[in-house]
Amino acid sequence: MLTDFCTTTTTATAAISSTSSSTAVGNSVLIVRRIATVLLFVSFSCFVLYRAGESIGFRIPASFTSRASFFLPTDNVSTAAYSDTEEYMLEKVLKNATMEDKTVIITTLNEAWAAPSSVLDLFLESFRIRDQTRQLLNHLVIIALDEKAFSRCLALHSHCYALVTQGVDLSKEAYFMFPDYLKMMWRTIDYLRVVLEMGYNFVFTDADVMWFRDPFPHFYKDADFQIACDHFSGKPEGVGNRPNGGFNHVRSNNRSIEFYKYWYSSRETYLGLHDQDVLNNIKNDSFIRDIDLKMRFLDTAYFGGFCEPSKNLSEVCTMHANCCFGLESKLHDLRILLQDWRKFLSLPPAQKISSALSWRVPQNCSLDSLRHYAPPPVKKNFLFPLISAFYFGNADEEVKEPRMLKEPL
Fold this sequence. Notes:
Layout: H1 2-55, E1 67-72, H2 84-97, E2 103-109, H3 111-114, H4 119-128, H5 131-134, E3 140-144, H6 147-156, E4 160-165, H7 179-197, E5 201-205, E6 209-211, E7 225-231, E8 242-250, H8 254-265, H9 275-282, H10 286-290, E9 295-297, E10 303-305, E11 318-320, H11 327-345, H12 349-354, H13 369-372, H14 384-392
Parallel strand pairs: 1-4, 2-3, 2-5, 3-4, 7-9, 10-11
Antiparallel strand pairs: 5-8, 6-11, 7-8
C-alpha cells in the first residue's frame, strides 16, 4: 500500500511538474512574441515618421554629415551658453567645410532670402559661373535663421546649419533698422565670435554679395580683421573708411575674439544702432589699440558694391547689393549684375582688357531709392521716428507711421 501510494504520488507530482513546465514555456513564448510585436510596431512608426520628416525637408542631424541644427530658447541667451552637444554639432559642420588652414566661408539667411528665385539662388549662381569660384562652394557654410530656410538649404547645398531662436520669427523680410533686422545682425555677430573661439578663421559674406573671383589673393596677410567698405578712402589703415559688415575676413586669435566680444557688448552703448554703425563708432576706440588688433579696410576696386561700384571688371572679386532698400529692388539689380558679368566673360581675352563695359547697376538700388521706398506700417516701433528723420528729413517732427514722399519705384 505504501509503495503504491508513493508510486502514485510520484506519478502525480511528475505530471503536475510537466504541466507547470509546459505552462511556463508557453507563457515565455507568449511574452517574447508580445515584446517582438511591440518592438516591430515602434520601429515601423519611427521609420514612417522619419520618412515623413524627410519628405518635407527636415533631417535628423548626424555626426558624419554637414547638416545640423539647434534651437536657442530665447534671443537673450548668449551663445556662450551652448551645450557641449550643440558645439559638437557645429564643429562637425565647420570641420567638413574647412580649408586646410581652418578657414570657412559663412553666410546667413532667412526664409525670405532662401525662397526659390530669391537671393540664395543668385548667390549660389554667382559662384558657379566660373571654375575659380565654384570650388569655393565646398567651403561655404549656410546658417539658416529659421526652419524653412534650413529646409531650402538642405535641398541646394552640402553644409547647412540651423540657428533658430524659439519664440522669435525671423523668416520674413527684415527691413533695414527695424527690430527684426537688428536681431538678425547682432545674433550673427555673437555667433561669429563662437566660430572664432572654436579656432576657425572665416570669410563672412552677406548672401547679396555676388562672388566673381577668388578674393583670397587680395586679403592682407598680417590683418586680424579686414572688412569691405561702403566708401573706401584709399588707405587700408585709415579709420576714415566707411566699413560695411556684409563682407569681412577674420583670423582666429585672442585679439579677434576679444574684439568680437567688445563689438557685441557695444550694442548696449549705442542703443538702436546696427552692427555696422556700432563698428564705425568703435573702430578708433582705445580698446582696439590696447589689444593690438590689426584692422584693415578692403579696396572697393576689388570688393565693390552699389554704394561704390568696382569700375574695372577685370579686377573685381565681389559686388555687394548695399545701399538698397527692399527685397524686390535688390533682386532686380542683382539679376542685371549677373547678366553684365556673363556678358563680360563672353568677350574675347583681348577685348576684356580694353573693354569699356561697365555695370548697368545700381538702378532700383541707390541712395535715392531710400527716399522713394516706404516700409509697411508698423505698430509701436520706437525706432521709426529716428529712421524717418534720417531718410525723410524733419527730425523735429514725430512721425507716427511710414509715409512716401514720392511714388514707389
